[in-house]
Design brief:
- The protein is of the alpha+beta class.
- The chain folds into 4 domains: 121 residues, no CATH class; 134 residues, no CATH class; 187 residues, no CATH class; 123 residues, no CATH class.
- A 3-stranded antiparallel beta sheet has the order 1-2-5, with no helix packed on it. It has a 3-stranded antiparallel beta sheet with strand order 10-13-14. The chain has a two-stranded antiparallel sheet with strand order 3-4.
- A hairpin with a 2-residue loop joins strand 17 and strand 18.
- Helix 7 packs antiparallel against helix 8.
- The longest helix has 22 residues.
C-alpha cells in the first residue's frame, strides 16, 4: 500500500477472510515507513543455494540491523510486512503508536493519498476496555482485591497472547534432510518416525518469543487457564493433539517440537476430564461430545504406554524423560551409566493416575452408553495392578515404597539383577500422592454389576489392593477413594511435603527437598560421581543444556496437581482428617485448609507484599519500584525455591498461567466453590458436597 504523510496502511488479502488492513497512524508528526519482503527461507545463507526471490524472510531484519536498503521490496508488496517508526523519546517521556486492524478500506484524499476511516480510535479503545472490565468482573471473585485481579488478568492476557499459528509438514522437512519413510537409513535425524504429521493450526505456545513451539503436557495445563476465557479454544486444543495429524499411529502423543518421540507425563486425559467437569458445573447444558471424541484416542495412547513403558510386564513403568528434565541422578532420556534400567516412581504414579482418569471418563460415558462399563472395569483393574506394584505385600527392597523412610523412590535395576533405591526426596516421590480420585456414591449405586466384578477380581487376586486405600471403606457422603496411598502412607508423605525444611516453601512446593542442601545424594559409577543437591534457582549441571531446573525451584503445574489431590482427599476424609501445617508447627488443618494455604503461597509469588515488593521480581529494583514496571508482571518458567523470585524464561507465561485459575479459587473461602471450579469429583453437584 502507498504511504501518506499522516497515516499508512498495509493491506492483506486472504482467500477466506477477504481483505484486511493494518492502519498505522502517524506518530510525532510522521507516518511510519512500510517495509515489505517475502516470508521465504534465505536458502543462500542456510544452504548455499540460490534464493527464489531477492526478498527473503530476514530482509526486514537486514534492512534495520545491517542497513541493507535492497533487502526489502521497493514495490511495497510481499507476504511479510512491517511498519517502521523512528522516534526520539526523552527520558521520562512517553509516545503512543496507534495501530488498528480493520476490514474497512482506507479512503482516498483528493491527491490520491490513503487516509484512515474517521478518527474513532479513542472511542473504540474505551469501549473495548469497558467490555474487558465487565468480562473479568464476571469470572473473578468480587472479594479479590485490585492487585490479585490484576495478576489474574495479566496471566490470562499472556495465555491469549501465546496463541500462534504453527505450520510443519514433517515428511517435507525430513525429505529436505534426505530421509525416506520407506527406507532404513543411518543417522540420528530427529522426528524421523513422524512422517504422518502435518501441523497447520493455531496452538497455545509455551514460549512464542524465542521461537514458536508446542509441548503436549504444557498444553494440557494451558487449557486449565484458557478455559476461563475461551472454553471452545481450550477444548479444541485438547482434541488437536489427538487427531490423526498429530497422534502417532502407534498411539504416542507428540511430546514437543524438538523431539516428538520423547515422553511427557500423560496428563492429557485429566485435562480433558477437567474441561468436561468444568462445563458440566457451569450451569449450561453439559455435552459428552468432548469425552466421546477424546476417549478412543486416549485409549490408544494408554495402550502405547502399557506396551512401550512397562518392559518387565510388572506394572512398574520407566517413562524416561517425563518432562522433569534433570530432576534425577542420571539423564533419564539416555542409557544409564550403570547399565540396566530405572523403574520410576513418577512414571508409575502417572500411569496409576491415568488409569483413574480413564475410569472416570468411562463411567461418565457409561451413564448414557452401557457399553463403556467394560472399559471402566478395564481401567479399574489397571489401577489396582499398578498401585499394588508400587508397594507389594511385605517390606521388599526392590519396590518403590520405602517403608522405613515413608517415601517413594526410583529403583535402579542393575544388569546382574540387583536393585537399589535412589533415595532422592523429590517430586518423583510426591507424585504418587497425586494418583487419587473419588468415586461418588451415585456411580457405585448405578453400576452394581461393575461393583460385583471388582469384588470378584479382588477375591481372585487377594494380593492386589492390600497396600492401597481400602476400596470397601465408605467416606463422606458415601464416596469411595481410589488412591495409591492409604491413610497411614498419606500422613507420612504429607509430613515431608508440608515441612518447611523439606518441600514446603513460603511460595509453594519445591521440586526437590531442601534436606539435600546439606545432604547431597551421590552415586559413584566407574570413577565418576553423579550427585543431586538442592538448587533453589538455576541448575549447576549441563544436563539438558543446564536450562531445565527441577532440583529445587517451584513449578506451577505440579503444584496445581497437588492442590487438586488435597481436595480429592478432603472430599473423602472430610473435616475429621487433620494434619500439622506446616509440619512441626502445632497448627492442625483439614486438607481443604492445606489446599487453600498452598494456593495462597503460590499466589503470593506475584502479589505485592507488606513492603510493597512482589517476590516474583526478587532483587530487581527497577521492577519493584519503577511505576512503569512494578505492576506489569512477568510470568516465568519456574520460581526460586526459597524467595519466590522468577527464574528461567521471563516471557514464558505457558503453564505458569495456571496461577490465574488458582487465584480464581483463591478468592473464595468455601469448599464447594473450589469444587465448582473443576477440582472436585465427577457427577456431583457442587453445593453441600463437602459437608
Amino acid at each position: 500500500m502507498a504511504t501518506g504523510t499522516t497515516a499508512a496502511a498495509i493491506g492483506a488479502t486472504h482467500p477466506d477472510l477477504s481483505e484486511r488492513f493494518l492502519l498505522c497512524e502517524a506518530a510525532a508528526g510522521a507516518a511510519p515507513e512500510l517495509l515489505f519482503t517475502e516470508n521465504e527461507t534465505n536458502c543462500e545463507r542456510l544452504f548455499g543455494q540460490p534464493n527464489p526471490t531477492p526478498y527473503v524472510k530476514d530482509g526486514i531484519n537486514d534492512y534495520l540491523i545491517l542497513s541493507q536498503v535492497d533487502a526489502v521490496n521497493p514495490e511495497q508488496t510481499g507476504t511479510k510486512a512491517a511498519a517502521l517508526y523512528r522516534l526520539s523519546i526523552p527520558a521520562g517521556a512517553a509516545q503512543e503508536i496507534r495501530l488498528r486492524l480493520s476490514d474497512r478500506t482506507p479512503t482516498a484524499e483528493p491527491d490520491g493519498r490513503r487516509k484512515q476511516p474517521p478518527a474513532t480510535f479513542d472511542r473504540v479503545f474505551k469501549d473495548r476496555l469497558q467490555e474487558t472490565d465487565a468480562f473479568y468482573a464476571a469470572i473473578l471473585p468480587a472479594q479479590l482485591d485490585a492487585d490479585a485481579r490484576n495478576v489474574a488478568r495479566q496471566a490470562l492476557a499472556g495465555m491469549l497472547w501465546s496463541k500462534q499459528y504453527y505450520a510443519l509438514d514433517v515428511e517435507r522437512w525430513l525429505g529436505e534432510h534426505n530421509v525416506d519413510p520407506l527406507r532404513d537409513q543411518p543417522g540420528a535425524i530427529r522426528n524421523r518416525d513422524w512422517f504422518h504429521m502435518v501441523n497447520a493450526d493455531i496452538i497455545s505456545m509455551p514460549d512464542k518469543w524465542e521461537y514458536p513451539w508446542y509441548a503436549a503436557w504444557d498444553l494440557a495445563f494451558h487449557t486449565l487457564a484458557l478455559s476461563m476465557v475461551d472454553r471452545d479454544f481450550a477444548h479444541q486444543q485438547l482434541l488437536l493433539m489427538l487427531n490423526d495429524q498429530y497422534l502417532h499411529p502407534n498411539g504416542q502423543i507428540p511430546a514437543y517440537e524438538w523431539n516428538f518421540s520423547d515422553v511427557n507425563p500423560p496428563v492429557h486425559a485429566w485435562a480433558t476430564l477437567f474441561a468436561y467437569n468444568l462445563e458440566r458445573r457451569s450451569g449450561g447444558p453439559a455435552s459428552l461430545d468432548l469425552l466421546r471424541q477424546a476417549f478412543p484416542c486416549l485409549l490408544l495412547n494408554f495402550t502405547w504406554w502399557v506396551n512401550r513403558k512397562d518392559p518387565s510386564g510388572r506394572n512398574v513403568f520407566e517413562g524416561g524423560f517425563l518432562g522433569l528434565d534433570n530432576i534425577g541422578v542420571f539423564d533419564r532420556s539416555a542409557p544409564l551409566p550403570t547399565g540396566g534400567r530405572l523403574e520410576q516412581a513418577d512414571g508409575t504414579a502417572w500411569m496409576a493416575f491415568y488409569s483413574q482418569v480413564m475410569l472416570e471418563i468411562a463411567l461418565n460415558l457409561a451413564l448414557e452408553d452401557p457399553s463403556y462399563e467394560s472399559m471402566a472395569l478395564k481401567f479399574g483393574q489397571h489401577f489396582l495392578w499398578i498401585a499394588s506394584a508400587m508397594d507389594r505385600i511385605g517390606d521388599n527392597h526392590d519396590e518403590l515404597w520405602d517403608e522405613q523412610e515413608g517415601f517413594f523412590y526410583d529403583v535402579l535395576r542393575l544388569p546382574d539383577g540387583r536393585a537399589a533405591r535412589l533415595k532422592v526426596r523429590s517430586l518423583v516421590g510426591l507424585l504418587p500422592l497425586c494418583a487419587v480420585s473419588i468415586i461418588p456414591e451415585r456411580f457405585h449405586g448405578r453400576f452394581p454389576r461393575l461393583a460385583e466384578q471388582v469384588r470378584a477380581f479382588l477375591a481372585s487376586h487377594p494380593h492386589v489392593g492390600r497396600t492401597i486405600a481400602p476400596l470397601d471403606r465408605v467416606g463422606v457422603n458415601g464416596r469411595r477413594l481410589l488412591s495409591v496411598l492409604d491413610e497411614r502412607k498419606l500422613r507420612r508423605v504429607l509430613a515431608y511435603m508440608l515441612d518447611e525444611n523439606e518441600f514446603f516453601s513460603p511460595y509453594g512446593i519445591r521440586s526437590l527437598s531442601r534436606y539435600h542442601a546439606a545432604n547431597p545424594y551421590t552415586v559413584h559409577v566407574q570413577g565418576m560421581d553423579y550427585q543431586v543437591s538442592y538448587l533453589p534457582a538455576e541448575s549447576n549441571t549441563g544436563m539438558f543444556g543446564g536450562n531445565s531446573n527441577w532440583r529445587g525451584p517451584i513449578w506451577m503445574p505440579i503444584n496445581a496437581l497437588i492442590v487438586r489431590a488435597l481436595l480429592q482427599y478432603y472430599l473423602y476424609y472430610g473435616d475429621s482428617f487433620t494434619v500439622e501445617c506446616p509440619t512441626g508447627s502445632g497448627v492442625e488443618m483439614t486438607l481443604f485448609e492445606v489446599a487453600q494455604e498452598l494456593t495462597n503461597r503460590l499466589a503470593r509469588i506475584f502479589l505485592r507484599g507488606p513492603d510493597g515488593h512482589r517476590p516474583v521480581y526478587g532483587g530487581t529494583e527497577i521492577f519493584q519500584q519503577d511505576p512503569y514496571w512494578r505492576d506489569h508482571l512477568l510470568f516465568y518458567e519456574y520460581f526460586h525455591g526459597d524467595n519466590g523470585a522468577g527464574i528461567g524464561a521471563s516471557h514464558q507465561t505457558g503453564w505458569t498461567g495456571v496461577v490465574a485459575r488458582l487465584i480464581q479459587i483463591f478468592g473464595y473461602t468455601q469448599p464447594e466453590v473450589f469444587l465448582a471450579h473443576g477440582f472436585g469429583s465427577p457427577r456431583e453437584e457442587p453445593a453441600h458436597q463437602a459437608a
